[in-house]
Amino acid sequence: MQDLLEKIYRDNDQLAFRQLFLQYSERLIVFAASLLPSREEAEEAVSDVFVKIWQNRASLPAVRNLNTYLYTAVRNTAYNYRTSAGRMPEILTGEHIQVAVNAMAASPEDMLISKENLRKIESAINLLPARCKLIFRLVKEDGLKYREVAEILEVSINTVNTQMAIALKKLGEVIDIRQHFGWME
Question: What NCBIfam families would the database entry show (predicted)?
Answer without folding.
Answer: Sig70_bacteroi1, sigma70-ECF
